[in-house]
């Protein structure tokens, strides 16, 4: 937690993304080493010089592929983590009365990047750090005109639904949760857009969105929600 004049902060932003990136980087390399070990063990008793040379080249190529594939994976996850960290800085500037939970796990397909609880409502924020021009076309978000394999609006809505279920099971009911897709790279055109029950915005618009949203939670409602989330996060 931090100072009394700013939002209360819970958790560490980007922590899960970095851990996932490390695992993503290591498993191809470990798999390659394991496969090379199996090959060497099976071939060693009857190996010839030519077979050994061919096997060595194949193993070297496999290891190079594994390292390059692992580095691509870790770079992508670390880029996402940096995006979450930059958005976390903006969320930390929210006024007193707001609570921000980073990497909150409530049974969604993945941990929710940021959950914001405050006088203006409950928000599940999915952060993206995409390079390139981001637009909303044909009922979906696109980067440089291409639809991503994991649509972020679907992710944000799934997170909001999971959070609502989590709170309802523990409190008997839960306020509406607004799904938010936030672009840390500020590459979304326009800066902010309502899409049904969800909001898409650039990071530069996030603070304003959260403090002016039309939702409402009483201080008692916020306290009950935060208490339940703190118990889960501890």
Draw up the topology in text.
Blueprint: E1 8-10, H1 15-43, H2 49-92, E2 99-104, E3 112-118, E4 121-128, E5 134-137, E6 140-143, H3 152-171, E7 177-183, E8 188-189, E9 192-195, E10 198-202, H4 203-212, H5 219-233
Parallel strand pairs: 1-2, 4-7, 5-8, 7-10
Antiparallel strand pairs: 2-3, 3-4, 5-6, 9-10
Helix pairs in contact: 1-2
Can you put this structure into words, describing what you see?
Helices cover 50% and strands 21% of the residues. By secondary structure, the chain is of the alpha/beta class. The chain has one domain. The strands form two sheets. The chain has a seven-stranded mixed β-sheet. Strands 6-5-8 form a three-stranded mixed β-sheet, with no helix packed on it. Strand 2 and strand 3 form a beta hairpin. Helix 1 (15-43) packs antiparallel against helix 2. The model has no long low-confidence stretch (mean pLDDT 83).
């Amino acid at each position: 937690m931090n100072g009394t004049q700013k939002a209360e902060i819970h958790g560490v932003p980007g922590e899960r993304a970095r851990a996932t990136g490390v695992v993503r980087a290591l498993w191809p390399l470990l798999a390659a080493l394991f496969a090379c070990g199996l090959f060497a063990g099976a071939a060693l008793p009857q190996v010839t010089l030519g077979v050994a040379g061919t096997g060595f080249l194949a193993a070297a190529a496999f290891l190079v592929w594994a390292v390059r594939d692992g580095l691509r994976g870790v770079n992508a996850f670390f880029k996402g983590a940096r995006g979450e960290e930059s958005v976390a800085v903006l969320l930390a500037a929210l006024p007193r009365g707001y609570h921000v939970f980073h990497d909150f796990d409530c049974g969604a397909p993945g941990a929710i990047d940021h959950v914001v609880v405050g006088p203006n409502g409950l928000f599940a924020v999915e952060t993206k750090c995409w390079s390139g021009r981001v637009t909303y076309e044909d009922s979906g978000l696109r980067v440089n005109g291409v639809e991503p394999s994991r649509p972020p609006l679907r992710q944000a809505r799934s997170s909001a639904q999971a959070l609502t279920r989590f709170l309802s099971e523990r409190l008997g009911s839960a306020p509406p949760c607004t799904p938010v897709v936030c672009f840390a790279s500020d590459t979304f055109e326009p800066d902010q857009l309502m899409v049904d029950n969800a909001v898409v915005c650039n990071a530069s618009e996030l603070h304003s969105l959260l403090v002016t949203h039309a939702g409402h939670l009483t201080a008692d409602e916020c306290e009950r929600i935060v208490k339940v989330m703190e118990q889960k996060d501890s």
